[in-house]
Amino acid sequence: MPDRLRSLPLGLPAALAGVDAILHAGDVTRRRVLDQLAEIAPVHAVAGNRDFGLRLPLDRVLEFEGVRLGLTHGHGGWGGYLREKVLNLTVGYHLDRYIRLVRDRFAGQPVQAIVFGHSHRAVNMIQDGVLLFNPGSVAPDYHEPFHGPGVGVLTITHGSIRGELVPV
Predict the structure, then answer these.
(1) 128-148 pLDDT, tens per residue?
(2) What is the pLDDT of residue 112?
C-alpha cells in the first residue's frame, strides 16, 4: 500500500480473526500498514526490497509454542535482489533455486518452518522436515492469477506446524 492497494482488503480482518500474531514477510512499504495490522494482533515483520526507511531486519527467528520459525523476505539485501532479478530475466523464475536461497538465510539455525515472501508466489510445502511457506500476496498480483489475493495461516499444535492459504 499504496502502490497496489489503497487500503487493506475488507476481508483481511475476518481471515486473520483469532490469530495470536501476524508475520509480515516484507514489502510493507508504509509504517501505517504495520500499525493497522497491529490492531488485529502483534506484528513481526522483516524488510522487503520495497521497505525503504522502515528499519526492519532482513531475517528473524521467532518461537511460538516451542516451534522455531524463520521469517524472511528472501531477497537477501540489495546484492541478492539484483542477482535474482538478473536470473529471473535471463533464465526465469525457478522455485528450487529460490527455495535454496531462502533456506540458506537460516543455515545453521534449527527452524521447523520458514515464512518468506519476495516472489509473490504461494508456496506451502515441506522439504527435509521444514515447512516452506509463502502466502503469495494480499494484493492482486500478476504472478498468482489463479490463487488470487490471500494470506497464510499457520497452525501450531503439539510442537508441529502446518500452513494454509486463505483467500481474501
Answers:
(1) 999 999 998 888 765 655 567
(2) 98
Cell matching residue 156: 501450531
What is the pLDDT averaged over residues 109-117?
96
Distance of CA 20 to the CA centre of its chain: 17
**Domain coordinates of the chain in residue numbers?**
12-167
Q: How far is CA 9 from CA 13, 24, 115, 137, in A?
A: 8, 15, 21, 11
> Largest Cα–Cα distance of the chain, in whole Å?
44
- In the chain, where do the E strands start and end? 22-24, 43-45, 59-64, 67-72, 113-116, 123-127, 130-134, 150-157, 160-167
CA distance 87 to 99: 14
How far apart are the C-alpha atoms of 31 and 9, rounded to whole Å?
17
Residues 115 and 154: beta-carbon distance below 8 Å: yes
Look up the CATH superfamily of 12-167: Metallo-dependent phosphatases (3.60.21.10)
Give 50-73 as a DSSP string.
Answer: T-TT----SEEEEEETTEEEEEE-
Closest among 24, 43, 21 to 118, alpha carbons compared: 24
Q: How much of the chain exceeds pLDDT 90, in percent?
A: 61
Q: Quick count: other Cβ atoms within 10 Å of Cβ 14?
A: 11
Indicate the pTM of the whole model: 0.91
